[in-house]
């Protein structure tokens, strides 16, 4: 099969694409949910359009940006890019049933807060989840050090969790960050796994797959995964992680999720 991607790997129930998500997404079929975290436009190793200098991120994995992406778009361009990706994701999630979990970080930029709510998304906001990391590294006299990030849920009107009990994690998730992953901006597997385990979603998409964390969470929850990644190095890491997780013994795999009455309509 050919398409606008450089490679396509099928590993168990995971299908991974190496390519630009804006080119790959229009070729995909419907999915039940999206869980993703895009590059934050932190400015990489040089002064960014948002005014940050290298010293703001010194000592972090992101001090030099991503492997093949400097993460320093002019800010209006960054917003147009994210709006375009989210619009494509909204086309893919099933009508009246699907949801997008968009993990991002609010920031103070020149004295004004920027957040995912600045973006224009075709689906309405259902809820804001606070990811309490329990730690932070942005010391600045102009604001209190942030120790949390956001997960904005954009959802169709009929989207539901699998049952009432699935809402038990609440809207503040106290989850420690992943400090060992071979990626400069990873989120811990427990983050997407908390969302995926609470849903009936059978197929989950991550258009910014990175090192494959959402894919690992899907395998642990017995769901299908579709991932897109533009960097070949991170793509290879994702393939290895997902292959290893697929081959790992499954002693605690949850039973298949039964669709709710609304899902069967």
Structural features, described:
This protein is an alpha/beta fold. It has one domain: Rossmann fold (3-Layer(aba) Sandwich). 22% of the residues lie in helices and 21% in strands. It has 6 helices and 11 strands. It has helices at residues 21-24, 75-92, 190-197, 213-220, 232-247, 261-264; strands spanning 7-11, 14-18, 33-36, 99-104, 107-109, 112-114, 125-132, 148-155, 172-174, 203-206, 224-229. Strands 1-2-11-10-3-4-8-7-9 form a 9-stranded mixed sheet, sandwiched between helices. A two-stranded antiparallel sheet has the order 5-6. Strand 3 (33-36), helix 2 and strand 4 (99-104) form a beta-alpha-beta unit. Helix 4 runs parallel beside helix 5. The two termini are 32 Å apart.
Concise overview:
The chain is of the alpha/beta class. Helix content is 22%, strand content 21%.
Tell me the radius of gyration: 18 Å
Query: Which second-level CATH architecture applies?
Result: 3-Layer(aba) Sandwich
Low-pLDDT segments = 44-59
Please state the oligomeric state of the protein chains shown.
Answer: single chain
**What is the CATH class?**
Alpha Beta
Tell me the distance between the termini. 32 Å
Mean pLDDT: 86
Order of SSEs? EEHEHEEEEEEHEHEHH
Count structural domains. Answer: 1
* Main sheet attributes: strand count, strand direction, barrel closure: 9 strands, mixed
Structural class: alpha/beta
How many beta-strand runs? 11
């Amino acid at each position: 099969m050919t398409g606008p991607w450089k490679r396509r790997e099928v590993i168990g129930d995971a299908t991974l694409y190496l390519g630009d998500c804006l080119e790959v997404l229009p070729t995909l079929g419907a999915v039940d949910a999206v869980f993703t975290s895009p590059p934050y436009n932190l400015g990489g190793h040089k002064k960014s359009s948002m005014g940050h200098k290298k010293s703001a991120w010194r000592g972090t994995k992101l001090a030099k940006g991503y492997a093949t992406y400097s993460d320093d778009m002019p800010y209006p361009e960054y917003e147009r890019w994210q709006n375009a990706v989210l619009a494509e994701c909204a086309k893919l999630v099933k009508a009246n049933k699907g949801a997008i979990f968009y993990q991002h970080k609010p920031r103070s930029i020149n004295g004004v807060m920027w957040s995912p709510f600045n973006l224009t998304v075709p689906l309405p906001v259902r809820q804001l989840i606070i990811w309490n990391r329990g730690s932070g590294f942005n010391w600045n006299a102009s604001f209190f050090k942030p120790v949390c990030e956001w997960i904005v849920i954009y959802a169709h009107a009929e989207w539901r969790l699998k049952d009432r009990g699935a809402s038990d994690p609440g809207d503040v998730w106290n989850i420690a960050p992943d400090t060992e992953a071979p990626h400069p901006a990873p989120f811990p597997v427990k983050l997407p796994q908390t969302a995926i385990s609470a849903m009936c979603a059978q197929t989950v998409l991550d258009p910014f797959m990175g090192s494959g964390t959402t894919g690992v969470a899907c395998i642990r929850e017995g769901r299908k995964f579709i991932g897109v990644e533009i960097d070949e190095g991170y793509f290879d890491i994702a393939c290895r992680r997902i292959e290893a997780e697929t081959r790992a013994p499954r002693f605690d795999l949850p039973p298949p999720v039964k669709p709710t009455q609304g899902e069967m309509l």
